[in-house]
Amino acid sequence: MKILVALKQVPDTETKIKVAADGKSMDWSDVKWIVSPYDEYALEEAIRLKESAGAEVVAVSVGGDKTRDVLRNALALGADSAVLIRGGETGDPLAIARVLAAFAKDQGFDLIFLGNKGFGGDNASVGPMLAELLGVAQANVVTRLEILDGRFRAEREGDADSEVLEGSLPAVITAQRGLNEPRYANLKGIMAAKKKTIEEVEAAPVVATVATVTLALPPARPEGRRLEGDPATQAAALLGLLRDEAKVL
Amino acid sequence: MILVFCETKDGSVRKPSLEALSEARRLAGAAGVPLGALFVGAATAGAEEAAQFGADVILKVEAPSLAAYSSDGYAQAIADAVQAKGATVLLAAATSLGRDVLPRAAARLGAGYAADVTGLALVDGRLQVSRPVYAGKAFATTQFETPVQVATTRPNIFTVTASAKAVSVEALKAPEGGFLAVVKEILTKGGGHVDIAEANVIVAGGRGLKDGANFKLLEELAEALGGVVGASRAAVDAGWGLPHSMQVGQTGKVVSPTLYIACGISGAIQHVAGMSGSKIIVAINKDPEAPIFKLASYGIVGDLFEVVPELTKAAKALGIGK
């Protein structure tokens, strides 16, 4: 079995967001870069399949020099090889999906794992788009996965419940928290990863399908009010304010 | 045409779909273009309801093969409908199904896509949207560079507006079966089957609840206020048996209720990411320094085990949740 894991490098989720002077992009100074949190579940699932079924795992990411950190870490966790696709972060999910599809096409991947959503754009769409472009099945926001002969069975999160779906391989699976417990890289893995070469390819040329016109911080909330007194007093005051001032009840 | 893919549940159009349809009605009216409501399934009972909310035409793609949801089957049906009607804008509510199928349909159409939008406009005939990015820490205005523009709308943002009109109903050809992936089973888990992302009032509990059994206090308050119960990641992870579908936050659900009451929740960034869009936030916490108080319109520094029952008592006395 051959598995591709597509990883996205993102700013740490604690990062204070700053808008650049052009008013439509992020100011990236002082940002700590990490692998997108959901991608960890994606990579872990691939490594587990490698361990149980003897799959070959290829890690890929679209980015620049600093993106090598994400790929190096994937190698340390057990990926067999890693590829950097040189290309910019466009915030354009279809453009990214097209780049990944051009890379993955005809390479015989049985499974392609991604995190269900990449922190940042938060579109949660590269996975399904990639599946459509490759003409394969998809299962998104997956919390449980079984690989059967030429088929998969997945549990995915719905709005208020879960659903079980079945489909054919090859398939694109996007991981949700709870799919597994991601491991930490151990020293042996880290040392072995240092010796591996991260391949580089150029991204297929892309055409923008969306563009950011403006980027802004949300309006600041006005200062709140603390309610005083004993619990009964506070409760009565709160309900009064919610009904008469905030008018939400 | 603006086309809205709508979902039905138990014979009615789902509220998030009505919200999308209502917003599309406003756009279509202003631009002078027709509005279509698209339904896909084996037998789309309840589709006619779209006429009450401004659809000019109701499109039905019906076939036994579409009885169970298939992302590739439904994406094909939706893309075919867009092409058959020459629609330039395709919308759907950002429900679990909407977020699963619309990006696939967009890729099939070679169309730009934006998820979970909170604002929509037509600028020179083309869609422009506002949406939260970086877990809601910033808002982006996005324009589209493709002939067809696709977006999903965040639930509980747009107002449902009735506007009954004369409508025509059209049946469209369904794609051939043999889909790549199909839903086999729905598993209902945990307590309520209400999607908290659709709720107007949420009473949420965190680590401060100390035990799953104590969530009963929150259920009572929620019921008294006509709302539902949510939970922070800490509570869901604590092994109290709370289902993940109750979790509000970066790795849970994003909610936009009118009222969010955070009980025993400190207000970590990851939690805030899921509820910062709430209109009014109330915080009840023992710790006066808890970050949640910075977000709250009204804060009560106190013991939630004393305050919450008092609120429930007072709310019942005022007959609020009725």
N→C terminal distance of chain A: 57 Å
Which stretches of chain A of 5+ consecutive residues score pLDDT under 50? none
> Can you write the helix and strand succession of chain B as a string?
EEEHEEHEHEEEEEEEEHEHEHEHEH
Range of helix content of chain A:
25-40%
CATH H level of the largest domain in chain B: which superfamily?
A: HUPs
Enumerate the spans of chain B where pLDDT stays under 50 for 5 or more consecutive residues. Answer: none
- Report the radius of gyration of chain B as a whole number of Å: 21 Å
Largest two-chain interface: A-B, 83 and 93 residues
> Helix/strand/pairing class of chain B, anyone?
alpha/beta
Strand tally of chain B is 18
Which class of the largest domain in chain B in CATH terms?
Alpha Beta
Short synopsis of the structure:
The complex is a heterodimer of chains A (249) and B (322). Chain A has a single domain, classed as Rossmann fold.
How does this structure look, described?
The complex is a heterodimer of chains A (249) and B (322). Chain A has 249 residues and is α/β, with parallel strands linked by helices. Chain A has a single domain, classed as Rossmann fold, CATH 3.40.50. Chain A contains six helices and 13 strands. Chain A has helices at 37-53, 68-77, 93-104, 126-134, 187-195, 231-244, and strands at residues 2-7, 9-11, 33-35, 56-63, 81-86, 111-115, 137-148, 151-157, 162-168, 171-175, 198-202, 210-216, 225-226. In chain A, strand 4 (56-63), helix 2 and strand 5 form a beta-alpha-beta unit. In chain A, helix 2 (68-77) packs across helix 5 and helix 3 crosses helix 4. The longest helix of chain A has 17 residues, at 37-53. The model of chain A has no long low-confidence stretch (mean pLDDT 94). Chain B has 322 residues and is an alpha/beta fold. Chain B folds into two domains: 2-172, Rossmann fold; 196-318, TPP-binding domain (Rossmann fold). Chain B is 27% helix and 29% strand. Chain B has helices spanning 15-31, 71-85, 96-109, 215-225, 233-237, 269-275, 292-295, 304-318, and strands at residues 2-5, 8-9, 12-13, 35-41, 57-62, 89-93, 112-117, 119-123, 126-133, 138-144, 149-153, 168-172, 181-187, 201-205, 228-231, 259-263, 280-285, 298-301. In chain B, helix 2 packs across helix 3 and helix 4 (215-225) packs parallel to helix 8. Chain B is elongated. The relative contact order of chain B is 0.12. At the A-B interface, helix 3, helix 4, strand 7, strand 8 and strand 9 of A face helix 2, helix 3, strand 7, strand 9 and strand 10 of B.
